[in-house]
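HUMAN: Can I see a protein plus its fold?

ASSISTANT:
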Amino acid sequence: MPAQEVLPASLAEASRRARISLAVMVGSVLLIGLVVPWLANAYWIKTLTSSLALSIAAAGVALLYGQLGLVSLCQYALLGAGGWIALRAGHGLGWPFELSVLAGGLLSCAVGMLAGLPALRLKGLYLALVTMMMAGGFQVVINVTGFPDGGAGWLGRVFGSERLMMPRPALALTDAAYFRYVAVWLAVVLVLIELHRRTRAGRSWALIRRGEAAAVAAGVNILRYQTWAFGLAGFCAGVAGALLAGGVGQLDGRAFTAGDSVMLFALTVVGGVYHWAGALIAGLLLRAVPALLTDFGVNGYLAMIFFGVALLHALITAPSGIAGQLAGLIDAVRKRLPGAGKDAAP
């Protein structure tokens, strides 16, 4: 094949594979949304709904760490902020559920951009500590103010009467329907992140991670693209918080501690930050594994020990996480199949 034809052919092949992988990702998530309600009971549908919602937040964490190598330990706080806005918009303003979700995502996006400003000067442990202090600050504030529950006033709190539940969208009134609804949101967010990775933003993030000097030399605006990444991760967290609020009907301020942000980051690393399935695995580890242990009569908090060992294993021997290891295993099996190399380029 002439040299001038090799590059267009390779680009066309890469584009074809990218479209196939995107279709596989969307199809897999939607298939989960369709199949699980037929197999699981009511308890597990609710548990797995929370897992899918948390997978959206984990996808944002994976974006920051996988693309830029930045450790943000305030993502669970942003999740709570998105839930607060969604509850306030739903109760106080009577907005449709989808608008409440988007409002929660956009507010968390703005807060995430502000949280990302220290990343311009701080890296590694120092950035992690600063963002963790932000999460601690949110924990203090939300324990004092609580989440809106249908009351009057700016905080929307109810005192002396029953708390109101956030109404679900008309298309997802049952638990099974709401599980499918959250699966659709997860697919949309994953597509949004993947499209960012494959465009100018993704190339700029890759240059920044390689070295800021090289990125500046290539004409990359460090401030713009780092802030962009933090904003997108914040949007993911806000959407996740709003969907959690819709699933339960309310949120409890005691469930949004700084330690939860650390756990979200740790399990995202264990799940895998370089593959979309890592976010799904992180969501399952956060909710499904403790629930499974409880079903077997084991204290769910023992999962913390397993998670610590898994994180140590991921950092030392498996930086690609569980998802990366599974993807590598699938590729190895595929290469051993008969005729696997027939379509290879000469």
Summary: The chain has a mean pLDDT of 83.
